[in-house]
């Protein structure tokens, strides 16, 4: 299972690297690339305008058919908005919300997400 992610501050990148899984980092320059294997998305919490590259990626070619789940990072101080980008993607695309973590996560967060990815197959 590939992990597709974006990271503006580096927090999400640090989290994803701890997973030890194959990754693709999305940027504005590569958002329209195609993928032909199952993937999850790990996203920070930002305004939709900032995270639109995730939607661009999902909607490119047949990528949507390989989208299996989403996890999100953020700051618990956001209250109800904590992890809203991941929650929105899960809702909009009908995929499971696998996990929410704060900042760059901790070992328990890594373990939880790895278990969820294993369950997905």
UniProtKB/TrEMBL annotation:
One GO MF term: FMN binding
A UniProt-annotated Pfam family: Flavodoxin_NdrI
InterPro entries reported for this sequence: Flavoprotein-like_sf (IPR029039), RNR_NrdI (IPR004465)
Protein name: Protein NrdI
Species assigned in the record: bioreactor metagenome
Lineage of the species this protein comes from: unclassified sequences, metagenomes, ecological metagenomes
């Amino acid at each position: 299972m590939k992990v597709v992610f974006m990271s503006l501050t580096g927090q999400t990148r640090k989290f994803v690297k701890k997973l030890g899984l194959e990754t693709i980092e999305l940027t504005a320059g590569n958002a329209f690339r195609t993928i032909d294997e199952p993937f999850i998305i790990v996203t920070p919490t930002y305004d939709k305008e900032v995270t639109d590259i995730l939607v661009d990626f999902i909607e490119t070619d047949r990528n949507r058919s390989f989208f299996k789940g989403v996890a999100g990072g953020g700051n618990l101080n956001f209250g109800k908005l904590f992890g809203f980008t991941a929650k929105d993607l899960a809702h909009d695309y009908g995929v499971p919300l696998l996990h929410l973590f704060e900042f760059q996560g901790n070992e328990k967060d890594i373990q939880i997400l790895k278990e969820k990815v294993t369950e997905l197959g």
